[in-house]
Specification:
Number of strands: 17
CATH architecture of the largest domain: 2-Layer Sandwich
Largest sheet: 8 strands, mixed
CATH superfamily of the largest domain: Fructose-1,6-Bisphosphatase, subunit A, domain 1
Strand order of the largest sheet: 4-3-5-6-7-8-9-10
CATH class of the largest domain: Alpha Beta
Helix content: 25-40%
Strand content: 15-25%
Number of helices: 10
CATH topology of the largest domain: Fructose-1,6-Bisphosphatase, Chain A, domain 1
Length: about 375
């Protein structure tokens, strides 16, 4: 070390020089990022990393189909219904098949479950089983695909807990806090993947010229107080009075809160993504028609809750943390309030549970009074 440079300054300079700089010749691919994350865990076997690679490949394939949807005969509805009784879009079926075929043979999964399939999707007998389960919504918001609105894929990974070689229902019905990874991909003006393994939430944008996901949003942090409110107001007349009071609070009509701007796309991934980056709340309360809520706990609420908590936000069904809900059904539905922490705490306070801390109580004020 040169005598005229203090040791602390020298160390600081070394650390700065070690940082990866985003230039045309120095980029961080998702594979490189996953490898760096894996090095933090000497006990890691690489299976989860391999599964994330396989998911990235499947999502590139789906992105390609979404981009060409207007040119190929894959727009519009089929004559089929999914297990929810909803008419399947052609891209729903195609995206579901891509996910299954890209992931069933890698030896990393013991079973899968899809929003589009009524039961567990077994790994074929001629393929080796691994120690993870995958649950996914292959194409969230697909009813919007015909009008070129952003859609997405959502996924959740849990560890196998049963003793047999093949995945069982018990492996699927785990509370969200048991997830080991979760993520989503938004297919919009650009294709972006956001995922977490419990070490922060990180975003990667697909460079179509390279065919690679590149790190673009490291360590995403959601503002504690949101700017945007994403909710379908057509259900206002079917909401319970306390939900109506909560919405008045978010709009600044009572409780002293600055009014939030309403932004609602109708694709969960698109609304969630905007709120994650800019701050906001996505709300899909229960109503008199759907008293158990509308969104799927395992395929939508749990994975997005894992991501938002890693970004400093929160998610609740109105009475408890989403990731503490114990699933009892594969296609269980739930109310959902997800996004900026103080705004989620306001929902919890109004709908039956006090905010988590004093700062949240100060932000909520007299909501519902």
């Amino acid at each position: 070390m040169p005598a005229d440079i203090p040791r602390a300054d020298c160390i600081a300079r070394t650390r700065k020089s070690d940082l990866v700089k985003h230039t045309a010749t120095s980029v961080v691919t998702i594979e490189r990022f996953i490898i760096e994350q894996e090095r933090l865990h000497p006990e890691a076997t690489g299976e989860l990393s391999g599964l994330l690679y396989d998911l990235g490949l499947a999502e590139k394939m789906i992105a390609n189909k979404v981009r060409s949807a207007g040119l190929a005969d894959i727009l519009g509805a089929t004559d089929l219904e999914n297990v929810q009784g909803e008419t399947q879009q052609k891209l729903d079926v195609l995206a579901n098949e891509i996910m299954v075929k890209a992931l069933d043979h890698g030896g990393r999964l013991c079973a899968m479950a899809s929003e589009e399939e009524p039961d567990i999707i077994p790994i074929p007998e001629n393929f080796r089983c691994g120690k993870y389960c995958l649950l996914f919504d292959p194409l969230d918001g697909s009813s919007n695909i015909d009008v070129n609105v952003p859609v997405g894929t959502i996924f959740s990974v849990t560890r196998k807990i049963t003793s047999g070689s093949r995945g069982e229902m018990e492996d699927m019905l785990q509370a969200g806090r048991k997830q080991v990874a979760a993520g989503y991909v938004i297919y919009g003006s650009s294709t972006m993947m956001v995922y977490t393994t419990g070490q922060g939430a990180h975003g990667f944008t697909l460079d179509p010229s390279l065919g690679e996901f590149l790190l673009s949003h490291p360590n995403i942090r959601i503002p504690a107080v949101g700017r945007y409110l994403s909710v379908n107001d057509s259900y206002h007349g079917q909401w319970e009075p306390e939900v109506q009071a909560l919405m008045r609070y978010y709009r600044g009509q009572e409780g002293g809160r600055q009014p939030m701007s309403t932004r609602y796309v109708g694709s969960l991934v698109a609304d969630f993504h905007r709120n994650l980056l800019g701050g906001g709340l996505f709300a899909y309360p229960a109503n008199r028609k759907n008293r158990r809520g509308k969104l799927r706990l395992l395929y939508e609420a749990n994975p997005l809750a894992f991501i938002v908590e890693q970004a400093g936000g929160a998610a609740t069904d109105g009475t408890q943390r989403i990731m503490d809900v114990q699933p009892t059904e594969l296609h269980q539905r739930t109310p959902l309030f997800i996004g900026s922490k103080n705004d989620v705490d306001a929902a919890r306070s109004t709908l039956g549970k006090a905010p988590a801390d004093a700062s949240a109580r100060t932000a909520v004020g007299s909501v519902g009074a």
